[in-house]
Amino acid sequence: MERKSKGLTLSDGLLADLGGKRTAKLLGQLGAIIPFESLAAPIRPLYDNTSTKGGRPNVPVVMMLQILFMQRWFGLSDEMMEEAIDDRLSFRRFLGLGVDDAGVDHSTIAVFRKRLHDADLISELFEQVNAHLLEQGLILSEGTVVDATIIEAPKGRTTQDGEGNSKDKAATHTRKHGRSYHGYKAHIATDTNGMIKDYIFDTAKVHDSKHIDQLIEDEPVGGAAYADSAYMDKKRKKRLEKQGIHCGIIERRVRGQDELRPEQKAHNKQCAKVRAIVEMPFAWLRRARGYRTRYRGMRKNASDFGLWAIAYNFWRSLSIKPTIQT
């Protein structure tokens, strides 16, 4: 059983013109394109408190999904989200809360997210969202851009007795540009509009090129695969060309080659313009303060990245003109 809003009151009417107008407009646009009811359907079976003994009504699943997305759109922790719901009129209106309605505390947010993690529902939600966006013409089916980024894990703290440490043991080390990192690596495939079509979450030590073949395996004949020079491999290039897929991977010098040939330079210049699109989601992630893990363990952090990818795709879709799929 889900709790019900008390409905609009006189106080809501008096405050109707207050609140952040830009935020309210943005949330209104996002709310209009997200099929919250459809997304909530596979989650509702996780709740069962309809026995004769009664029980405290659940916060509506739609509202909890809205909260999870807002956290990622605005870079808010559970505690910050609880305070924002109590404090910001634009947030309350997006959630359908009147002035006299109770907010949502941070522990409820944490428990809801844990239910999604434990039920392995995030990947299912991601696929459901992308199927919807593809149907709306907001994800292009031809042309894939692949890249990876490091998601750092906290270094952890040693307990006072010196016998324990909170360091994430599942995370691994790697080096990039002379700097050492400890954490995970998110491998993503976007379309040529910067929408995330697929992702693979792995440990930091895994090389960028390990997952590209899986991320582009559904690219159709006549499509293209773009990536930086770390992904260049002669066998991969020949295989793509044999499959009728344009190889847009940046060329690099081979042993004994002083400089790239003119045709290689032209190829790289042309492909670099498209390849740069994959940086858009990573830049958005940095702005959303998501370049550090929130949990310990591969499973939870992979699930959390999936939530971020869903929130990003909805945000990005506001800037894309729908294209008729063929």
Architecture overview:
A hairpin with a 2-residue loop joins strand 2 and strand 3. The protein has 13 helices and six strands. Mean pLDDT is 88; it is low at 10-15. The relative contact order is 0.13. It is of the alpha/beta class and 326 residues long. Strands 1, 2, 3, 4, 5 and 6 form a six-stranded mixed beta sheet that branches. The protein has helices spanning 10-14, 21-33, 36-40, 61-74, 78-87, 89-95, 106-118, 122-135, 212-215, 234-242, 262-275, 279-287, 298-317; strands at 144-152, 172-176, 179-190, 196-203, 224-227, 246-249. The two termini are 42 Å apart. The protein folds into two domains: 10-119, no CATH class; 140-293, Nucleotidyltransferase, domain 5 (2-Layer Sandwich). The radius of gyration is 23 Å and the shape is globular. The longest helix has 20 residues, at 298-317. Helix 2 (21-33) packs parallel to helix 6.
SSE inventory with pairings:
Layout: H1 10-14, H2 21-33, H3 36-40, H4 61-74, H5 78-87, H6 89-95, H7 106-118, H8 122-135, E1 144-152, E2 172-176, E3 179-190, E4 196-203, H9 212-215, E5 224-227, H10 234-242, E6 246-249, H11 262-275, H12 279-287, H13 298-317
Parallel strand pairs: 1-5, 5-6
Antiparallel strand pairs: 1-3, 2-3, 3-4
